[in-house]
């Protein structure tokens, strides 16, 4: 079935990429619609079934490599004690399997126009979302207390965590906005319309302003890496010079004059000893120190196989009890690094599976010279250093959807044009 010149499954995928606007359970409905549409179009007649079997043969290798991490996670159920919690952990990362399955086998490789349109839909979803956030901030009169901002008082972060429509973690929202900025920046470069460029600049400004309000260190770090990536990609020397001066000016101003940034990136570090928390003297930095010490100790004791997907949190909680503070009992703290989490779940096998997956993804980005895919991977990898991004619905969905979209466009179209050579 087609609507205009595009298949129904493509429009269902457009619906899926608007996930910033949805409550979590709505994502499941959108994915079910996509699955039904793609199944129908792949199996409806003889020609469709022949094409489906061809994709099964041609794309099975890249599917396996793009989902490699899932298999050691499943294998870890064999030696995990908390099976029910392990199964829930696997359910969280199901999008890592579902989207490659649907896009690699049940849909044809996405064209350049389709890929860009999907990015535009996501950008629009993020733009509507950031406007909704700002409306809530104004309604709560948060801008009246800007002079009271400190690393112990972040009202904008707290407001996002308590949103009535859908409570969200500020880090994940900020990562979405980082990618929306990349999409806007790319279209600014290729657009000749002054009006369109003005709209893009205003949207980028709003996204950046909101990221600052949310004070996400991970997002600010990602933006720093992205800036250097874009700088390297620039071909003209004068552009590089102007961009470098502007970047250094923005960094200097932000670190010294913007309270949201300086309190999180300077003040908190200055006033915190890099040691696990004691008593009530705790903040996000020394809490992480304790977390990373426990994660490192568990990895040393379980370096080959890990502790199993169901037992990671239990083992961490047991380790936290050795600290002279109750902060780790007030909330549940994961490993705060997806690389550490993977190692804790499945040991060396899972860790190298993760590294190999991203080796494949980076190879596709480099060979295709696609700046958007490169930017996306920078955001994901930099955030995985300090957050369990792929353990939360909003993180794994973001990664699984767009990683599959980029591979479908940049890689699957190429191997089909080369007669099915799927070597990587």
Number of strands: 2
Secondary-structure element series: EEHHHHHHHHHHHHHHHHHHH
Radius of gyration, rounded? Answer: 22 Å
Helix share bin = over 70%
Number of helices: 19
Our estimate of the beta-strand percent is: under 5%
Distance between the termini: 33 Å
Mean of pLDDT: 86
Low-confidence runs of at least 5 consecutive residues: 1-5, 419-424
Q: Which strand order does the major sheet show? A: 1-2
Q: Mind summarizing the main beta sheet?
A: 2 strands, antiparallel
Shape category: globular
| Helix-strand makeup class | mainly alpha
Question: Could you give a short description of this structure?
Answer:
With about 425 residues, the chain is mostly helical.
List the main descriptive attributes of the protein structure presented here.
424 residues, two-stranded antiparallel sheet, mainly alpha, globular
């Amino acid at each position: 079935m087609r609507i205009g010149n595009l298949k129904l499954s493509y429009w269902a995928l457009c619906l899926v990429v608007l996930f910033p606007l949805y409550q979590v359970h709505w994502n499941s409905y959108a994915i079910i619609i996509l699955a039904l549409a793609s199944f129908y179009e792949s199996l409806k007649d003889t020609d469709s079934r022949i094409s489906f079997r061809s994709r099964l043969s041609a794309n099975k290798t890249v599917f396996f490599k793009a989902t490699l991490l899932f298999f050691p996670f499943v294998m870890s159920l064999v030696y995990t004690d908390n099976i029910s919690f392990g199964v829930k952990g696997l359910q969280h990362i199901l999008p890592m399997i579902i989207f490659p399955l649907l896009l690699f086998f049940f849909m044809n490789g996405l064209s350049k126009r389709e890929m860009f349109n999907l990015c535009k839909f996501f950008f629009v979803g993020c733009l509507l979302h950031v406007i909704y956030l700002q409306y809530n901030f104004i309604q709560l009169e948060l801008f009246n207390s800007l002079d009271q901002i400190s690393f112990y008082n972040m009202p904008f972060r707290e407001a996002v965590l308590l949103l009535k429509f859908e409570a969200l973690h500020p880090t994940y929202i900020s990562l979405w906005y980082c990618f929306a900025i990349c999409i806007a920046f790319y279209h600014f470069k290729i657009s000749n319309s002054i009006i369109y460029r003005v709209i893009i600049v205003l949207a980028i400004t709003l996204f950046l302003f909101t990221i600052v309000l949310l004070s996400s260190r991970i997002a600010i770090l990602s933006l720093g890496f992205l800036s250097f990536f874009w700088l390297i990609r620039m071909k003209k020397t004068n552009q590089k010079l102007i961009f470098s001066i502007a970047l250094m000016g923005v960094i200097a101003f932000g670190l010294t004059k913007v309270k949201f940034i300086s309190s999180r990136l300077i003040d908190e570090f200055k006033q915190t000893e890099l040691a696990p928390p004691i008593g009530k003297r705790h903040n996000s930095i020394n809490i992480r120190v304790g977390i990373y010490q426990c994660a490192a100790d568990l990895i040393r004791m379980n370096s080959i196989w890990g502790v199993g997907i169901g037992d990671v949190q239990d083992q961490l909680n047991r380790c936290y009890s050795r600290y002279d503070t109750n902060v780790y009992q007030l909330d549940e703290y994961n490993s705060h690094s997806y690389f550490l989490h993977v190692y804790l779940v499945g040991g060396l096998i899972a860790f190298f599976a993760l590294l190999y997956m991203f080796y494949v993804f980076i190879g596709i980005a480099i060979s295709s010279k696609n700046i958007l895919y490169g930017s996306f991977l920078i955001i994901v990898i930099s955030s995985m250093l300090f957050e369990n991004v792929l353990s939360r619905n909003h993180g794994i969905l973001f990664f699984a959807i767009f990683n599959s979209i980029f591979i479908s466009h940049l890689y699957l179209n190429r191997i089909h044009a080369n007669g099915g050579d799927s070597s990587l």
